[in-house]
Amino acid sequence: MTTPTSANPEDHGAQMSFDGRMSYGDYLSLDKILSAQAPLSDAHDEMLFIVQHQTSELWMRLAIHELTAARTLLAKGETRPAFKMLARVARIFEQLNSAWDVLRTMTPSDYTRFRDALGQSSGFQSHQYRLIEFILGNRNRAMLKPHAHRADLVALLEEELTQPSLYDVALTALNESIALPPEVLNRPRDKAHAATPAVAAAWAQVYRDPEQHWELYELAEKLVDFEDYFRRWRFNHVTTVERVIGFKRGTGGTGGISYLKRMLEVELFPELWHLRTDL
Fold this sequence. Notes:
mainly alpha, Methane Monooxygenase Hydroxylase, Chain G, domain 1
C-alpha cells in the first residue's frame, strides 16, 4: 500500500517565509504591473482592452531586445545565436497574433461603452511598434511626429535611424559572398529600402545553390519566417478592428481600416518574397 503524498509544500522543501528576502512578486515587480490597469469608465470590457494592449507592449519590449541583439551578432558574423534570436522573435509575434483572438471576443456594443474615454490615444502612437519597424528597415521620418511631445522617445527613434537596419546588416552579409552595387550598401540609413534587381539576383543565386551559401540561405529563411508572422499580425489587426468598429475613423485620427489595409502592402524584405516567383 502506497503512502499518501503530502500536499504541504513545506514538506517538499518549498520556501514559505520571505520577510527580508526576494519573492516571486518582488523579482517581477508585480505590484507595479498589476496596479497599472486604470480603466477610465465603468465598462466591463475596458479591462480587456487595457490588458491586451499592455501585454502586447511587453511582448514588443522583448522583440526589440531580441532584434537589436540579433542585429549586433549578425554584424559580427556570429550567425548561429542570431538565428536563434530571430526564430524567437517570430514566435513572439505568434503570441501577439493570439492576443487578437482574445480581443475579438469584445463586440461593437462592448467597445462603444468606453471608446470615448480613449480620447485621441491609439496603437498608431506606440513608439515600440515604430521602433520595431525602424529596426526592420521600414523607415519614414514623418512617423516621428506622433512622438514630438516626448523628447526622450524622439531621441530614441532618431538614434535608431542612425543605425543600419536588420535588413541592411543582412545585405552586408550577402555582399561578402555576392557583390552588391555601392548604392545599395551606401543607402541613407534613415530611408526605407526599395527593392532592387541586383539584390533580387543575389538572393536568387543563394536560393539556387543553398549548399554553397547555407548560412545566407538560412538567414534569408529566418527573415521570411519572421515577416510571415509579422504580416499575419498586421492582417489580424485589420480584421479585429473591422469586426469591432467597422470602417469608423480611428481614435488616433487615421482612416482606420483604410489605413491599416495600406499597411498590409508594406514589404520589409521585398527581394526575399519576389524571388520565389522567378526561381
